[in-house]
Amino acid sequence: MLEDFDQMLNDAGQPGVTELRALLQELLGGGAARGAWLDERQLSAPHPRVYRLRFDVNGSVRSLVVKRLEPAIAQRNQLVTQRWLPAVDLSDRGPKLLGAAAERTGQCVWHVYEDLGDWALNGQSEPLPRLKVAVDLIAQVHLRFADHVLLPECRLHGGDFGIGFFASNVRDAIRCLEALHGPQMGLAPEHARLVDRLLARLHTLREEQAERTQALEDLGGAETLLHGDLWTTNTFVIPTADGLQARLIDWDHAGVGPISYDLSTFLLRFPCERRLRILEFYREAVALAGWRLPPSEGLNLLFETAEYARFANRIIWPAIALVMDQGAWGFEALSEIEEWFEQFEPVLPLPAELAA
Hints:
Blueprint: E1 2-3, H1 17-27, E2 35-42, E3 50-57, E4 60-69, H2 71-87, E5 97-102, E6 109-114, H3 128-145, H4 151-157, E7 159-160, H5 163-179, H6 189-207, H7 209-219, E8 224-226, E9 235-240, E10 243-248, E11 255-257, H8 259-267, H9 272-287, H10 296-325, H11 329-343, H12 351-355
Parallel strand pairs: 1-2, 7-11
Antiparallel strand pairs: 2-3, 3-4, 4-6, 5-6, 8-11, 9-10
Helix pairs in contact: 3-9, 5-6, 5-10, 6-11, 7-10, 8-10, 10-11
């Protein structure tokens, strides 16, 4: 038996740890294994739910990553790794899920993954060869799932990031902000002005919905499976005996929609001067399948639509907290989102800017 399991995650205050420990004992060899739990390291912030755990098993050190998930999100990740990616021959390009343990009341599910190490992309100084390998994988996911028969299932268990995502989030954000003007709220003048400024932005976005819908129809291309959260921290490029291999982890937000949703997220993780080269890698990868991307001006409109939809979504939750729970943090969050709107610039530089 492995020793010190009763100390693992003992101070984390996490639900379902008993069930997780039983799963880990099984995965590490059960009663036949000898050794001990060595240490843990929290990998997620600010909310602790992902840990790297190291064990001494029969004289060798083994490292695993454990992640606490809501049940629906756990199911989504399991579908990605065990059904969706294998359906397009990309089973080795996601995280390797070793097992799952549900907390006994159904509150959460723990996933145990192979530890891929510290090979996530660096947005500031990543060498171009590593970037190309990562972008090629993103392109392959998009290409192979374009109009795939599994997309209805992906939409059912994931999200829908088409124009409906924009429309519903703008509508819900307006609804929630308007509730803050109710007589029971008694907003301070500066808070009332903040709410009004955000409402003005959202009403403008609602007026632009028809234009953005048409742009997405004309320029967006085929629906496909989207990772939904393509930050560099979720994009790994790992040295192997056969060369560099990319993997995409953390499919918590996977869904269906246009490629611009994923591309905008990914490109915004890099300095502006690197984005056109990264996008060129993507253009080259999809051109082999006959895809042609719109020019930068059209892409910028699609990217802006995706980003503004995400901003609107982020408004909803602090507004609800303020109305329902009087969460004082809500106004600070809304002020930060206003700054996002003010600071947002086109994702891609336009030809005139490059010549300047």
